[in-house]
Amino acid sequence: MEKKYLTPVINNHQIEVYIIRRGQPIADQILTNLFRLKELQNHENVEFQTRNILSETWLLLLKDIQTNYKPDQTQRFEQPDRIRSMLSFIHTHYKDKLTVAQIADAIGISEREAMRSFRKNLHQSPIEYLISYRLNEAKKLLLHSDLSVTEVCFQCGFSDSSYFGKAFRKAYGLTPREFRSQK
To answer: Is 0.85 topped by the overall pTM?
Structure first.
């Protein structure tokens, strides 16, 4: 089991982060499974069903990785800690006004190198990732706090509530108020 199913994922150095994007067949199946898991948790005695869905999801992940992340022995791998360190810096300082220069300076590389690392590993810029992370944190606050939408906006590092609303709607298809009312 370990050699056949775990090692190909765990030891694949091309994968720092696995991003699930809607609109891709395997990603859509993985997301469907995750939503099924969430729904199952509202019921009792679902351990076997949960295990089966997790196994199916792992096999989908493995299939996608084997198709899209073939090891290339000649490729020079980046230091795994580089992207991890930048992500950690963003996660710690997302509430602050951040620039690419600050993110790069935090680990001692140039802005251009930071941009290159993000594009290569996450297929987005550091600022796109930052906004996505802020929006995800905003979702959590909207669901689990009584803060006003404006307070959530500022708590998550947005300095303009109008922009926050537009970005939230673009990402999730709902305004922050509509999202909160669905909980």
So the answer is: no
